[in-house]
Amino acid sequence: MIELTHMPALVVVAPLMAAALCALIRHSRLCWWLATLTLTFSCVCIVVMGRAVFDGNVLSYAMGSWAPPIGIEYRVDALAAFMLGVVGFMALIVHLYGYRSVRAEIPQPLQGWYHAIYLLCTAGLLGMVITGDTFNAFVFMEIASLSAYTLIAMGKDRRALTAAFQYLILGTIGATFYVIGVGFLYLQTGTLNMTDLDTRLDGIMDHPGVLTGLGFLIAGLALKSALFPLHLWLPNAYAWAPSVSSALLAATATKVTLYLLIRFAYDIFDFDIALAQANWSFVLFVLSLAAITAGSLLAIAQDNVKRMLAYSSVAQIGYITFGIAVANLNSLTGALVHLANHALMKGALFMLLGGVMLRLGSVHLSHLAGIGRQMPWTMAGFVLAGASLLGVPGTVGFVSKWYLAVGALDAGHWSLVIVLMASSLIALAYMGRVIEMVYLRERPADAPTVTEAPPIMLAATWLVLAACIYFGLDTDLTAGLARAAADSIMDQPQ
Amino acid sequence: MNGGPPIPRVIARILIPPMLLYALYVQFHGEYGPGGGFQAGAIAASAIILYGLVFGVSHAQRAVPPAVVIAGMPLGVLIYAGVGIATLALGDNYLAYGALNPDNPPGGQHLGIMLVELGVLVTVFSTMLTIFYAFTEGED
Amino acid sequence: MNTETLLTFFGALNHWITIFLIVTGLYIIVARSNMIKKLTGLVIFQTSVYLLYIGPGKVLGGTAVILNDRFTVYSNPLPHVLILTAIVVGVATLALGLALVVRIKEAYGTIEEDAIFEQDRDA
Q1: pLDDT in tens, A385-413
Q2: Is B134 in CB contact (< 8 Å) with chain C?
Q3: Chain C residues with CB inside 8 Å of B38's CB?
């Protein structure tokens, strides 16, 4: 009954229906198992679809049998399959990890709801990637965002509430800007379908209405993906959210809006023509550099480790948009690989901190003194993921920075390689602060003794860390897929 | 019945039954004319909300218990998505209503739209009431 | 001011109102510290989009899209459908925002953003 042809629909519908079922039963353990089954099913679908589209095929699915461009089309090409893989697998692993973490951090009566909202958020994120309809992407964006606000607001600290509120205001402004942009494009072309839009925009890309729409789109998506200086919602949201929420959102939420940015900039608009027209590529370029520098510097100043990682995310988002702005095959490959790699690294780091939060009840830097000996596996993982964040050869971080640097050199911006290196050094400074505190300080005599994080949390986290190493050594899968994806959307490979 | 001015009470009693009836009309007429599950759900919910505002939330909660509306929200989504699964099982695309009645596709479409609108009705009705109950918590 | 200028101005009246609503909404969000007022600003801001879509969907002389032999010109129904969805999204956002404000009021005892930041700084 489950054939490849229906998988594009099922991959989104399954978590959506499971979310509704969870909200109906609301039994914590049952919901967890249901979510596990559903997310596994989605991942299987993603792998099967990925194999089908890897060699350049495209899966197109007509919702309700209404043929596109009239009906809503779900479309899986190499790029979409790549992103679906990132979102689907990270959501599954973080969910497995949540078996213990959710029980520890979420009040018992809300645990079933938490799993339901988690599934809803995942369905929204998957939907944003898979849909071939610009307005449908907005609807999924809002499904994902509304559930993300709730996931954040469930944090124990009351600051989670204000963080969620700020995110709600800024996120809604971002989404509304996006939909204004889509509106302008619709007024100019009369279509909402991405493929159709691509065709109909030929020749009118310098039309003022189209350029205005593009401006709104980029501003909205930049706000949703926390591109500096529109990142203000992100640090608090990640810092005060429950550990599982932080890990999921850091790994996937901003990445998916960046995916939409790539989709619009390269696939729908011809990057060179449309974005150069209003100097958008230059703006994106400058903001990326500012994000890399400012995000790294701000990270040093943080005493809350989760907040520090959140600022580091701002810098890492800068890397990705940098790859988008430089706009050649290597840099775009770098941006895509970094999307996946950063999801792995940051996901792992937030998952490790979740273990610390569970045992220690705090992730404040000063409380971490000397816990390296008491939580050896957690902290070894932290060092490993940190090394990947710096870009040490042999880890995934190195692979993506390599592609970005090569892309920058291809474009003749050799000075930018220095910025990339410098920011890695700053990353060494802030990660080093934590590592110094954890390993070199003595545990204060009056500090409570902590034990290692629960096995299921460690197992899930080390699975991600193993992927960090594996994909750092064997680049065929991630970099190969990313290159195929970049190839498929770049019109003139250089 | 608690106290309070009599005029709203009398008017509410006159209004609420036609409102519920009108909600049903909008629901079942939705496939031919303007209307549908969303509007029907909103109208039906506003009838209950009017009842709650005039006679007290506890009365409204006795008529439509909070447990029912909380279950109603996901139930409606499941009805909607279930129709999609049914069309898949019948061998057509997701939410291709025509498959519901292979001998007479337009009839299948009528049926499909009616069913998904029923899902929308349940969800919208429950959601509006959930919001109403949530914000009137502790005030009665 | 000649007739042509006036016609251009009023011909784009819905766009002027759209712009007015966008700017008003954003201004309220930025300038007000009260969270309920911020949400009000957000709703006004979102309303501008509804107008942006629906205005151009109207075909002069067109009627609602209910097929009937007496009519040949119909308005474009697609923007209305899109905006019905957007309105639902807006309602959901507003409900969630208000729910958060209720929780914030319980946790902090105030819904003024400045006062809340002050409390967090002291904490």
Answers
A1: 988 888 888 888 888 888 888 988 888 88
A2: yes
A3: 84, 88
> Rounded to whole angstroms, what are the CA distances from A88 to A50, A185, B70, C16?
12, 30, 28, 43
Judged by CB atoms closer than 8 Å, whether chains meet at A183 and C52 is answered as yes
Share of chain A above pLDDT 90, in %: 33
A69: preceding bond cis by omega (within 30 degrees): yes
- Bridge-partner residues for A193, per DSSP? A133
The CATH number assigned to the domain holding C28 equals: 1.10.287.3510
State the average pLDDT over residues A459-467.
89
Tell me how many helices (H) and strands (E) chain B has.
Answer: 5, 0
- For residue B3, with 0-12 CB atoms within 10 Å meaning exposed, 13-18 middle and 19 or more buried, which class applies? exposed
**Structural domains in chain B (count):** 1
Q: Is the pLDDT of residue A2 over 70?
A: no
**Chain B interface disruption, residue of C75, C85, C87, C88, most B CBs within 10 A:** C88
B1 assigned to some structural domain: no
Q: Which domain holds residue B100?
A: 6-135
d(CA A279, CA A299): 30
pLDDT score of A274 more than 70: no
Residue A6 Cα, gap to closest chain B Cα (Å): 7
pTM tops 0.90, yes or no? yes
Select the more confidently predicted residue: A444 or A34. A34
> What pLDDT is attached to residue A277?
64
Determine whether the interchain pair C120/A153 forms a contact, defined as Cβ–Cβ distance below 8 Å: no
Are the beta carbons of C29 and A165 separated by less than 8 Å?
Answer: no
**CA dihedral sign, ordered A397, A400, A402, A408:** negative
Number of domains comprising chain C: 1
Angle at which helices B105-135 and C78-108 pack, to 10 degrees?
A: 20
Please write down the HEC assignment for all residues of A22-62: HHHHCCHHHHHHHHHHHHHHHHHHHHHHHHHHCCCCCEEEE
- Subunit partners of chain C (3 or more CB pairs within 8 A): A, B
Task: Flag the least confident range among A154-168, A261-275, A360-374, C39-53.
Answer: A261-275
Q: Per residue in A149-159, pLDDT tens?
A: 999 999 888 88
Task: Give the model's pLDDT for residue A165.
Answer: 93
Residue C30 to residues A142, A172, A213, C113, Cα–Cα distance (Å): 22, 14, 23, 11
* pLDDT value for A20: 92
Query: Which residues lie below 8 Å from residue A484, measured CB to CB, with a gap of 6+?
Result: A54, A56, A78
Comparing CA positions, the residue from A397, A372, A392, A369 lying closest to residue A382 is A372
CB contact under 8 Å between C99 and B134, yes or no, is: yes
- The neighbours of chain A, by the rule of 3 or more Cβ pairs under 8 Å, are B, C
Backbone angles phi, psi at A370, to 5 degrees: 70, 15
Query: What local confidence, expressed as pLDDT, does residue B103 receive?
Result: 85
ipTM of the complex: 0.92
Nearest CA in chain C to B132: C95
**Residues of the domain holding C75:** 3-122
Q: Which residues of A touch B92 (CB under 8 A)?
A: 65
Instruction: Measure C66 CA to nearest chain B CA, in Å.
Output: 7
Query: What Rg value do the Cα atoms of chain A yield, rounded?
Result: 21
Pick from C45, C92, C116: CB nearest A176:
C45
The whole-angstrom separation of Cα A219 and Cα A213 is: 10
The rounded distance, in Å, linking the Cα atoms of B42 and B6 is 26
Residue B72 falls inside a structural domain: yes
Mean pLDDT, each 10-residue run in order, chain C (123 residues): 78 86 93 93 93 83 79 85 90 92 90 87 74
Q: What is the mean pLDDT of each run of 10 residues along chain B (140 residues)?
A: 77 93 88 79 94 90 91 93 89 85 85 90 93 77
Kindly report the number of other CB atoms within 10 A of residue A275's CB atom: 25
Q: pLDDT at position A493, please?
A: 40
